[in-house]
Amino acid sequence: MNFWEYLGNRHQQLLADAYQHASAVFQCMVAATVIGVLIGVATYRSGWAGNLATLTTSSILTVPSLAMIGLLIPLVGLGVAPTVIALTLYGLLPIVRNSIVGLRGVDATLVDAAKGIGMSRWARLLRVELPLAWPPILTGIRVSTQMLMGIAAIAAFASGPGLGNEIFRGISSLGSANALNQVLAGTLAVIVLALLFDAAYVLIGRLTIPRGIRA
Fold first, then answer.
1. DSSP letters along 40-92, please?
2. How far is CA 179 from CA 14, 67, 188, 211, in A?
3. Residue of higher predicted confidence among 115 and 147
4. 87 neighbors 36 (Cβ within 8 angstroms)
5. 90 in Cβ contact with 65 (< 8 Å)
6. Confidence band (pLDDT; 50, 70, 90) for 214?
């Protein structure tokens, strides 16, 4: 059968895999965002601490995804657990780095003004510094999401959820009638999901970033 016939016959399974893929990436991005911003907040005031945080998270990113998942399998088993841990770790670097850069780039006079009107350190952080650092943080989240969309496909190696199962099934049966259709369908679905997520981030940016800051 041709590619379009294959899509017609397998659309329900593809939609289920796409939902699992998107759900895994979304949940891991939430976890990576929370952890990454907290690391940025904890380290941006110190040069060595910020460099250490960036170096550590960048070192994680250099570990091949198959190796990372393979190392996690003996610890947490197959399925969702190694997928979630690996994706969360891989998503940290752009968020940590952009959080540190964004917070360090906040105009010191604005922070001093907030301090002058009696704001506590936490109030300044939550009401002045983080809102002004949000544009670069959001950029880091967008970059992380695009990376994780592709890396999440490798999760099929550990029986994880998502479109990687479709791709791996096609690769393992190369030479059969629908092998190429499986690989192509899974790959295109990952690309479509990545574009949809990025469009959602653009909308979030327009809703949360004041026009003056965007300019």
1. HHHHTT-HHHHHHHHHHHHHHHTS-HHHHHHHHHHHH-SSHHHHHHHHHHHTH
2. 15, 25, 14, 48
3. 147
4. no
5. yes
6. low
